[in-house]
Amino acid sequence: MKKIQELEQARTVDKCLKDQGINSSFFYAYENTLETINESINFTGIVWEQDVKEIIEHCKKFNIEYFTISNAQAGIENILALFEEEGCSIELTKVFSKYIDFKTNEPEIKNGFKVIVK
Fold this sequence. Notes:
Number of domains: 1
Strand order of the largest sheet: 1-2-4-3
Distance between the termini: 20 Å
Structural class: alpha+beta
Shape: globular
Oligomer: single chain
Order of helices and strands: HHEHEHEE
Radius of gyration: 14 Å
Largest sheet: 4 strands, mixed
Number of helices: 4
Number of strands: 4
């Protein structure tokens, strides 16, 4: 995944993410994804309803065409519906985990959702 300079610099600024105009869910998904071989940001943690619009805004700002969600949170269908209401489309996909499958010695592959930002 390509590094995003503004998010890289956010670690060095003596301000909270919110004061820097950065959504914390987006930032931590970015940070966690850097530990994987995924091509785009993957949300492994909870995606909150109130974060949907900011996540889309960040994707547009940083030229991210899609991201994935691979968590199994209750009510994920409601979150996905909010992304669709904001103009995104949803596909099923496979996502690489940051953990290694001990049987294959390769990154674990998980089911997920690909959210395409339009």
